[in-house]
Design brief:
This protein has eight helices and seven strands. It is of the alpha/beta class and 257 residues long. The structure holds 2-{[(2S)-2-hydroxypropyl]sulfanyl}ethanesulfonic acid. 2-{[(2S)-2-hydroxypropyl]sulfanyl}ethanesulfonic acid binds next to loops.
């Protein structure tokens, strides 16, 4: 632990599981007070319990990132509790199913509501607090799906592409406020979000789906939540002080080949 987040308040969305939970634990270990946002209160509370058991500071906030009202209330509550919001990690995301020929309108809308609109709404609510604090850092969760066509994942690919474009737009708009905005494009990490895709890829057999997926990764394995969390920590920290508008792949070489 080197205290890279000491004195900072960090909001992490989707922090009740997967990469978000790993990031919440890591940021807290580095000294941040972490607002653990998740659509499931119990999942958020579990993350908070892990953090507090390790001596960190965190609070659980149930929030639907696709709802402007819910997001505004959650961000304002965080700022009221801790006096500031310095870091926002827009990690919450949902999957989609099917190629463009099969995807349902409902699936498409849900994918954009959470992955894209959620990023917009959380950022919009957090920016005034960051301005008040004299600056901040936003990290958006994109995906390798923004950089390469992933079969049977049309809405997700499109939504993550939008997150990349939104990241560049936000970086341009917010640089003068001292707010840096970057995106991570993780390769596949075995999290609850990924399980349905992996199972479908193996025609219902998770092990077969995992093997097919690993074959796409030159490094010979999938990523871990902790590996992506470390990239988010770096981008959120002063170590990345000259980085804004960057789209950072962390994908074991998947998009390099
Ligand atoms: C869900 C995550 O953003 C990864 S997109 C799917 C990538 S892969 O499994 O087809 O390599």
């Amino acid at each position: 632990m080197s205290g890279r987040m000491r004195g900072r308040t960090a909001v992490i969305t989707g922090a009740g599981s997967g990469i978000g939970r790993a990031a919440a634990e890591l940021f807290a270990a580095e000294g941040a007070a972490v607002a653990v946002f998740d659509v499931r209160q119990d999942a958020a509370q579990e993350t908070v319990d892990k953090i507090t058991a390790a001596g960190g500071t965190a609070m659980a906030v149930a929030v639907d990132v696709s709802s402007a009202e819910s997001v505004q209330a959650a961000i304002d509550r965080t700022a009221a509790e801790w006096g500031a919001v310095h870091v926002l990690y827009n990690n919450a995301g949902v999957n989609s199913t099917g190629s463009v020929a099969e995807a349902t309108e409902e699936d498409w809308d849900r994918c954009f509501a959470v992955n894209v609109k959620g990023t917009f709404l959380c950022s919009r609510a957090a920016v005034p607090h960051m301005r008040k604090a004299g600056g901040g850092a936003i990290v958006n969760q994109a995906s390798v799906a923004a950089l390469a066509g992933i079969p049977n994942f049309a809405a997700y690919c499109a939504a993550k592409g939008a997150v990349v474009s939104l990241t560049r737009s936000m970086a341009a708009d917010l640089a003068s406020d001292g707010i840096r905005v970057n995106a991570i494009c993780p390769g596949t990490v075995f999290t609850p979000l990924m399980e349905p895709l992996l199972r479908a890829r193996g025609d219902g057999d998770l092990e077969a789906g995992l093997a097919k997926t690993v074959a796409k990764y030159p490094i010979g394995r999938l990523g871990t939540p902790e590996e992506i969390a470390r990239v988010a920590l770096f981008l959120s920290s002063d170590e990345a002080s000259f980085m804004t508008g960057s789209i950072v792949a962390s994908d074991g070489g998947m998009t390099a080949v």
